[in-house]
Amino acid sequence: MRRREFLALAGGTALAAQMDSVLVHEHVLVDFVGADQISPGRYDPDEVFRIARAKLEELRRFGCRRLLDCTPNFLGRDPELLARLSDAAGLEIWSNTGLYSAANHKFLPGFARNETSAQLAKRWVAETRQPWRPRFIKIGVNRGPLDELDLKVIRAAAITSRETGLTIASHTGDGAAAMEQLEIVTNEKVSPAKFVWVHAQNERNHDLHEKAARAGAWVEFDGVGPKTIEFHLQCVGFLAGKGLARRTLVSQDSGWYHVGEPGGGEFRGYTYLYTDFLPRLEPAQIPILMWENPREAFGV
Ligand SMILES: [Zn+2]
Asked: How many A from CA of 295 to the centre of ligand 1?
C-alpha cells in the first residue's frame, strides 16, 4: 500500500500506524475439539496459511512488528505453520509453551492429570530448547477459587518461568483467580512482573485491576473489538488515571481459523485496534501501550 492510500485508510491513526508495535494476544488458528480428540490432521495447513497470510500482511502494513500467538498446545498450537507465516508476512510470530486448564479442563491431556507441577514444568522447559523456541508461557485457569488442576498448572508455569525467565500469560477467569495466581507466582520466587493477567476485561471491578497492577503484575485488556471498545477505553483510562499505564497491556484476541468450520469460518482481522481504538487515546499513551510495555512484559 502506498503511503497516501494508507493515510486515507487509517485517517487519524496515521501516527500510530507508522510506529512500530507489538500485539500481545492474538490467534492464528484454534481447534476447540478437546485434548482427547485433537490431531494435526484435522486441518489443511496450506489453507490456513493462505487465509491467515492475507490478514497478517494487512496487519504488517499498520506497523506491527511482532504478534504473540496465544493458542496453547492441545488447542491447535502449530509452531511450524507460524514460522511459515512469519517468513511470508514479514513480522515475528511468537509461540508458547504451557497448558490450558480453563474451560473445565477440556483441553488438558491425560498426562497433566497424573504428573506433578515439577514434571509438567520439566516438559515445558524442554520445549524451550526446541528449534522453534517458545517465547512465553501460556496457560489458562478457571474462575477462583482455583481447583487442584488449575493450581498445578500455575505452579508449573511459575517453575518454568523461574528456570527460563519466560513470562507467564494466564487466561484467567476472574479477579479472584488473578490474585490467587499472583500469590502463587510470588511464593515461587518469581517476580510479579513475569505474570500477565490475560482477559482482565472480564473482571468488572477496577479495584482488582489496580491491586494487581500495584503488586507489579501486567493487566491485559485484550478483547478490543467493536462491541467492547468503550469498556476497554474505560479500563485503560482507569489504570492510567492511577498512574499505572506502565502496567497495562492491550490487544484484540482476534483471528482466527476455526478448525472444523468450512474455510475456517469467520477470520476476524487484526487491525481494528489501529483504526478505531488507538485514535481515541492520548497520543503519548500509544507508544507505551503498543511498544514499550509489550517489550518490557515479554522481552525484546
Ligand atoms: Zn485468546
From this structure: 19
CB contact burial 131-156 (16+ within 10 A = b; e otherwise) = eeebbbbbbbbbbbebeebbbbbbbb
Per the DSSP assignment, residues forming a β-bridge with 139 are 170
How far apart are the CA of 5 and the centre of ligand 1, in A?
31
Q: Ligand 1 centroid vs 148 CA: distance in angstroms?
A: 23
221 CA distance to ligand 1 middle (Å): 11
- φ, ψ of residue 100 to 5 degrees: the values are -110, 110
pLDDT in tens, the chain (300 residues): 333 334 434 444 454 456 899 999 999 999 999 999 999 899 999 999 999 999 999 999 999 999 999 999 999 999 999 999 999 999 999 999 999 999 999 999 999 999 999 999 999 999 999 999 999 999 999 999 999 999 999 999 999 999 999 999 999 999 999 999 999 999 999 999 999 999 999 999 999 999 999 999 999 999 999 999 999 999 999 999 999 999 999 999 999 999 999 999 999 999 999 999 999 999 999 999 999 999 999 998
Give residue for cell 492474538: 26
Q: Please state the pTM of the whole predicted model.
A: 0.94
Cell of 40: 494435526
Burial class (CB in 10 A: 0-12, 13-18, 19+), 188: middle
